[in-house]
Amino acid sequence: MSDTSQDRKSTADANYTERLATLEKAGIKRLLPTQAPYRWNLRRLKLGRVLDIGCGLGRNLQNCGPDSVGVDHNPTSVATARERGLTAYTPEELAEAADCGPGSFDSLLCAHVLEHLDEDVASGLLTQYLPYLKPGGSVVLITPQEAGYRTDATHVRFVGFEELRAYADEAGLTTQRTYSFPFPRAAGKIFPYNEFVLVSSAPTA
Questions:
Q1: Are 71 and 89 in contact (CB under 8 A)?
Q2: Which residues contact residue 24 at a Cβ distance below 8 angstroms, ignoring those fewer than 6 apart?
Q3: Is 136 domain-assigned?
Q4: N or C, which end of the chain has less CB nearby within 10 Å?
Q5: Which residue stretches, if any, does this entry annotate as coiled coil (predicted)?
Q6: Mean predicted lDDT score pLDDT of the chain
Q7: Which pTM does this prediction carry?
């Protein structure tokens, strides 16, 4: 798997946004509601108002609670999410948003982001956005398993259950549960859409 600075940078440019949009309609996705299980998984977690970190085009954001907000370092992706009727900001815009101050969100969602980042950058990402979370709020981390990890050249570090727990611990979060979705863990070696999911909570004070 390539780990060049150009690969990492490419998640911030317009070509990456175009790639995400193309993948949304590729193959079987044109014919079947392939996102239905993932929408259900998010909704059953009852996350309330969510800050979706690395929201991309808004695939997960559109399935979060009312008034949820996305943030992404790719301004083209942010613009696309807005065109879809979602509320999304770049990090700089989020810092200035009147309704997004400290403690404004019930939950943080970080889905398919950490595998794009070096370890130190990933740790800093969680620290950066934790102030936006209410005391006792939830933090949900999702990453691809082996088959999914291999599908994207911008993935730079495999992040499994062990690494997710380490990120949560370092951020001062309490891990509530981890699970493989939508299929058992073994499927992740061949099914590219199997995910690691960690659900955690922030301190209450």
A1: yes
A2: 57, 59
A3: yes
A4: C
A5: none
A6: 89
A7: 0.88
How many separate domains does the chain show? 1
pLDDT greater than 50 at residue 1: no
197 is written with which tokens? 């999911």
User: At 2, is the pLDDT very low, low, confident or very high (cuts 50, 70, 90)?
Assistant: very low
Tokens of 170: 């370092």
Is-contact 127 194, C-beta < 8 A?
no
Q: Is residue 192 part of a domain?
A: no
Residue-wise pLDDT for 16-48, tens only, equals 667 666 666 655 555 455 779 999 999 999 999
Helix (H, G, I), strand (E, B) or coil at 82: helix
Q: What is the CATH number of the domain that holds 110?
A: 3.40.50.150
Q: Which domain holds residue 82?
A: 5-186+197-201
In a domain, 191, yes or no: no
Q: Other CB atoms closer than 10 Å to residue 191's CB: what's the count? A: 15
